[in-house]
Amino acid sequence: MSFEVVVEVVLDDAGLDDRPLIVGVDVDVLFGGFASSSREAIRPIVDENQQLYFYTNQYEGGVCDTYTWCTGAVPEQQISTTLEFLTNEFGNDIYTIAADYNFGQITAAWYRKIADEVGANIMEEEFIPLDVSQFGSTINRIQEADPDLLVTLLVGSNHASFYDQKNAAGLDVPMSTTVNMAQGYEHLRFDPPALTDMYVGVNYMQEIPTDQNQTFVDGYYERWPDADYVGQMAQNSYFTTYLYKQAVERVGTTDQDEILATLDEEPITVEAPEGTVTTDPETHHVTHQIRLARADENHEISFQNQQAVEPYWLRETPYPGCDLTETTGASEDEEMTQYEPEGV
Amino acid sequence: MTALLPQVLNLLLQFLDSFGFLILSAVGLAIIFGMMGVINLAHGEFITVGAYGTALSYHAGLPLVAAMVVGVATTTVFGLILEFTVVRRLYGRLLDSMVATWGISLIMIQGLRVVFGSSLDSIGTPLGNIQYGTFSYSTYRLLLAGASLALLGALYWMFTATEFGTRARATIQDEEMSRALGVDTNRMYLLTFGIGSALAGLTGALYAPTMTIVPGMGSTFLVEAFVTVVVGGASVLVGTTGAGVLLGAINALFSNLFGTFAGRMALLVTTILIIRILPQGITGLLNQIREEEA
């Protein structure tokens, strides 16, 4: 049986209140939200209205929510597989600069946690307000600390100015991130060598050298010839639509209660441009193909160390102990917590 | 001593950097506000126009300096057109002019996004860097600080030594009397708005090589611009310069010791204190001192 899925794009730039969308339009499924701040504004409304919601961007992890499925990669997948490699390669002293809101704060905590596990040392952390675009003093302070590895968790167009300013100031240090390049394609927007030795654990970048991905990228540019880059958000939203399609075909209806239940009962696998992706009913996240991507001095991207990484942390007991299969589908006793790494 | 010297240099460079950013952010706004009493809430977008003009002509193949001239020229023409069509009707109506310019700002941000997309290719900062101790600093950013000083000097000359400056100051002091004495005040306002726009355009042109060029980039200048004008008070040159020195020093010190966030907090706390103690800003303080001496 097959269903024609009607996708309606509802542009809602008002930002933080999506109530009219759910209550007024009565949608079967909601995709959306770019920043973690908007996702956290959307979730309470989603939960209140028992609305199936897919958040497709990479984020800081930890959301355990009956009605929300997070199909982007999370730090437990991106950092745990890359930080040990990087500290072995470059040294143990790490300096973190991060955007000053929930994404940056929590991801920085993840770096602390995993640095502890691999025996590395976070020398200093600096949280930078989102409207800052001038990084002179930050660059000075990094030079003073002289770290082996710089973790950049910068977000948005203001923060993107950092790379060029760092380059102009002659600050030369390997960098690690969970967001840059795969999302904002800084390696194409900035002249080399600003992003030299930037490492990111990614589930997707358009440069992934597989035939499967090449077909996707070609198709994308055929459909949208003016697109600047096919980023992880595009890929995640693409395969998530196919996940949803499979769920609908399995139950034979777009009824939300039945879809929520079937998603909780057994994993669904799709062949995404990144490779095989499998849902995890316990945590409402997905197993991703994680690769360590690196930009060289010409901003050419290379990949290494590909492995399938489960969203393992959320279901660890006793903490966080997320298990959304305890009650299948919609639940009055809904779980909607966002857990953060403890003790770091 | 060897460890201290680079630290002192750090602070000095940081101060020059903050000072330059504050002055260049504020000067266009300060002129239009100080001379015409119009609060231009689209000031940030005027800066954006300067940056877009520069980036687009640079990518079209012009050398950087020529591209900057195009950026400034574009913003000036743009400002003159707005003065003629919108702002002219709103003199003496402070709140109305704020709403109108805010509307212009919103239209411009979305308009730029519709026409040019979510971002332009960056230009890349020229001129390399200077080394001292374990530190290094972008030469171009030093040049920006120098440009802000040169600009203040040029404005001082323009207002005190040219006929235009005399007429402009007469218009601020007493519009009716100046008109009676043969000054075309409408023309003065048009020119002043043009100069304010050109300066905003210059700021955009100068900072274009150091930033990501996006429709909303003007907003990063706005806080610094308003804070400087508020702390400086109505006097365009003395007030703005004084505010640049004071706020630049505080911002540099706190950023250097405790990070960007602390620098920003210190900047805003200082502004709140100044408004509380000196409602007329540094200009008010100077007037007070002058009166006491007299």
Structure description:
The complex is a heterodimer of chains A (344) and B (294). Chain A contains 11 helices and 14 strands. In chain A, strands 5, 6, 7, 8, 9, 10, 11, 12 and 13 form a 9-stranded mixed beta sheet that branches. Chain A has 344 residues and is α/β, with parallel strands linked by helices. Chain A has a domain at 77-202: Rossmann fold (3-Layer(aba) Sandwich). Chain A has helices at 19-25, 36-48, 75-78, 83-90, 102-118, 136-145, 156-168, 186-189, 211-223, 232-251, 256-265; strands spanning 30-31, 53-55, 63-65, 68-70, 93-99, 121-128, 149-153, 175-177, 198-202, 269-272, 275-280, 285-295, 301-309, 336-338. The model of chain A is unreliable at 1-5 (pLDDT under 50). In chain B, strands 1-2 form a two-stranded antiparallel sheet. Chain B has one domain: ABC transporter involved in vitamin B12 uptake, BtuC (Orthogonal Bundle). Chain B has helices at 4-36, 43-59, 64-85, 94-116, 139-161, 163-173, 175-180, 185-207, 219-232, 236-258, 260-277, 281-293, and strands at residues 129-132, 135-138. The longest helix of chain B is centred in the first third of the chain and has 33 residues, at 4-36. Chain B is 77% helix and 3% strand. In chain B, helix 1 packs antiparallel against helix 10 (236-258), helix 6 (163-173) packs across helix 8 and helix 10 (236-258) packs antiparallel against helix 11 (260-277). Chain B is mainly α and 294 residues long. The model of chain B has no long low-confidence stretch (mean pLDDT 88). At the A-B interface, strand 6, helix 6 and helix 7 of A face helix 1, strand 2, helix 9, helix 10 and helix 11 of B.
